[in-house]
Amino acid sequence: MICDSIADTVGRTPLVRLRHLTAGNGSEILVKLEGHNPGGSVKDRAALSMITRAERDGRLKPGGTIIESTSGNLGKALALIGAARGYQVILVTDPKAAGSFLNYVTALGAEVHVVRKPDELGYQLPRLVKVKELLEKHPDAFWPDQYNNPDNPRIHAEQTAYELLDEVPDLDVLIVAVGTGGHISGLSATLKRELPRITTVGVDVVGSAAFGFPYQPWEMRGLGIAFPPGNLHAHLVDKVHPVTDPEGFATTRLLARAEGLLLGESSGAAVFGALHYASLHPNSRIVAVAPDTGVNYLGESFEDDWLDERGILVQMKERDLFTVEGLLAAARDPEYATVLLAHTPEARELRKSA
Prior knowledge:
The protein contains 12 helices and 10 strands. By secondary structure, the protein is α/β, with parallel strands linked by helices. It has 2 domains: 6-36 and 150-345, Rossmann fold (3-Layer(aba) Sandwich); 43-137, Rossmann fold (3-Layer(aba) Sandwich), CATH 3.40.50. The strands form 2 sheets. The chain has a 7-stranded mixed beta sheet. Strands 3-4-5 form a 3-stranded parallel beta sheet, sandwiched between helices. Helix 1 packs across helix 5. The longest helix has 17 residues, at 151-167. The chain is globular.
């Protein structure tokens, strides 16, 4: 296939069935590998959608500038598509960003600003303050605003969900790590319309405030947020499973060693959530979305020293999370229980019977 632009290669990512990380009860976990997008993540879809819509309505003009706050993957996607389409890309990030991200986006010509002073909720709000400062200097620039831009979830409702239905028309459960809320909201909107009995589970890192839980710092990247994002449509999510840093990192590492899947940290969290759900629901067909590739994190979360510096390695040892057997046992009895959201029919029935 010959494409006119790298942007034309976005989408049609593969699904892989887990063979070794399984609950052993007839349930099936399929992992959708969004790291096969050209920029290495699911954010290629959102970036392409937001840029294309802005071009069509005149918010982004030829040779213009794109400014955005990012912890990594959206920045890579914007830098990639910006280079292909002739835009200047200015990104605002923070010290948690992977070193590979900085090298990637600067290689593509992006300008990077690193915010080094967090507030009481971390770096996300200070990053947005910096974005607004830059927009004052570049008043004609386009700000994608990934947290609130409806073109973020729209692409998943209109494209990603139908890819999934073509491949797995009879899935029972969708499990997605939550960041901006874009891909879980878009996917769930379409899948719930086409498959009304499907269950959507949002996997979030412990400490994230996306669903209104108390904020506390965390180490995993690619999921979690300090505030409820506008693109998270909670009425489309049935359950939330909070995953700890040790659970997520351990699953990421074992996906590589036991399945040959080199995936990112949020992918590990999503699969841990899938393993927990599978342990409680025999014979279910589960799709977990793996947002990015583990190539982003080589030298960091795959290294014992990096985890040890953050106090995570000792917690993994205490819970025996280095073997498949130990991880599966932890998934059956996770540190945090799945939370049933109040708007669901199941929750209403429980309130009636209480």
